[in-house]
Design brief:
With about 130 residues, the chain is α+β, with helices and mostly antiparallel strands. It has one domain. It contains 5 helices and 4 strands. The protein is globular, with a radius of gyration of 14 Å.
Length: about 130
C-alpha cells in the first residue's frame, strides 16, 4: 500500500502502532523466531470485534511506519503489522516464502486471504513455505 500522508489516525491507533513496532523490535533483538511466532499466536487468541476495517488498519500502519526508526525489512514490517492488526482485533497470517533462482526469502501479511501492506507482484514470485 502507498503512504497516505493525509490519513487521520487516532491517538489510540498511534499508541497501538508504537507498541506493535516495539514488540517486533524486541522480538527480533532478543528472542528466537519460534518464540516470537508463539507470542504472536497467543496475542491472536484474544481477537474480538474489529476496531477498524482491515484496509483502514493497514493504511493507518503504513501512514505511521515512516515515523518508526527501523529499516524497512520484511520480517520486521510483517511482525509489526501482525502485532498491530491483532491489537485492532483483525485476523491475519504472516506468510514466509522463498524462491529458488535467484535464491531469496520474503515474508508478508495476509488478512482474509488478501495481501496486506505489500505489493502482490513481488510476493507472487515467492512460494509460501510457512504460515504463522
Amino acid at each position: 500500500m502507498a503512504f497516505v500522508a493525509s490519513a487521520k489516525v487516532s491517538l489510540g491507533t498511534q499508541a497501538a502502532f508504537w507498541l506493535a513496532c516495539a514488540r517486533a523490535s524486541h522480538a527480533l533483538a532478543v528472542k528466537r523466531l519460534d518464540r516470537t511466532f508463539n507470542t504472536l499466536a497467543s496475542v491472536r487468541q484474544n481477537i474480538g470485534a474489529p476496531r477498524l476495517t482491515a484496509s483502514a488498519a493497514v493504511s493507518s500502519f503504513e501512514s505511521l511506519r515512516p515515523w518508526y526508526p527501523h529499516k524497512r525489512i520484511c520480517l520486521f514490517d510483517a511482525l509489526a503489522l501482525s502485532f498491530f492488526l491483532s491489537s485492532q482485533h483483525i485476523a491475519s497470517e504472516l506468510v514466509i516464502g522463498v524462491r529458488a533462482s535467484p535464491f531469496a526469502a520474503h515474508c508478508w501479511v495476509e488478512t482474509g486471504g488478501a495481501l496486506a501492506g505489500d505489493m502482490s507482484d513481488h510476493c507472487a514470485s515467492f512460494t509460501p513455505i510457512a504460515w504463522v
